[in-house]
Amino acid sequence: MAHRDLPGVIAPPPLIYLGVLFIGWGLTRIGTWPEAVDAGFGWLAAGFGLEPRLRQGAAVTLIIAGLLLDAVSAGLFRRRGTAVEPWKPSTVLVSDGPYRFSRNPIYLGFAVTYVGLAIGMDSWITLLLLVPCLVVVDRFVIQREERYLAAKFGADYLAYRQKVRRWL
């Protein structure tokens, strides 16, 4: 069997975030929660404790910030001539721009956008579902990518990994 130059991620990361977001939206639409759950998250259930205008402003700000981080990070990949999509081969190790601070600024941007959307939807359950979403992305996308990059770029990637945190 020939070696494939791919990290073997389980699914495109944007689909993971969107899938979990839609699950949260669906659960919010159902809206039948035991009183104990509502009592424990009352501050979230009440518009995240924010006035509607402030909540909407926070949502829009986070969505824009996340999308900008994604655009800048993906733009660096394109300018370097390597694939943004993790299911395609990497040709260059990108370590400048936002990659100086996070090894995964695109996934961080997705998470910030997700938080903005959850706040905009006024859905505490969607916000809470970000935790399992990040676990899936970390375990089944990022860890596979990191093994792939270590094998492909060797010492250069290992030095980069020691210098820059996974998320922030």
Keywords, separated by commas or semicolons:
mainly alpha; elongated; single chain; 66% helix
Give a short overview.
The chain contains eight helices and no strands. The protein has 168 residues and is an all-alpha fold.
Question: How would you describe this structure to a colleague?
Answer:
- This protein has 168 residues and is mostly helical.
- It has a domain at 51-163.
- The chain is 66% helix and 0% strand.
- The protein has helices at 13-30, 35-40, 42-45, 52-80, 105-120, 124-128, 130-153, 155-163.
- Helix 1 packs parallel to helix 5, helix 1 runs antiparallel to helix 7 (130-153) and helix 7 (130-153) packs antiparallel against helix 8.
- The longest helix has 29 residues, at 52-80.
- It is elongated.
SSE blueprint and pairings:
Blueprint: H1 13-30, H2 35-40, H3 42-45, H4 52-80, H5 105-120, H6 124-128, H7 130-153, H8 155-163
Helix pairs in contact: 1-5, 1-7, 4-5, 7-8
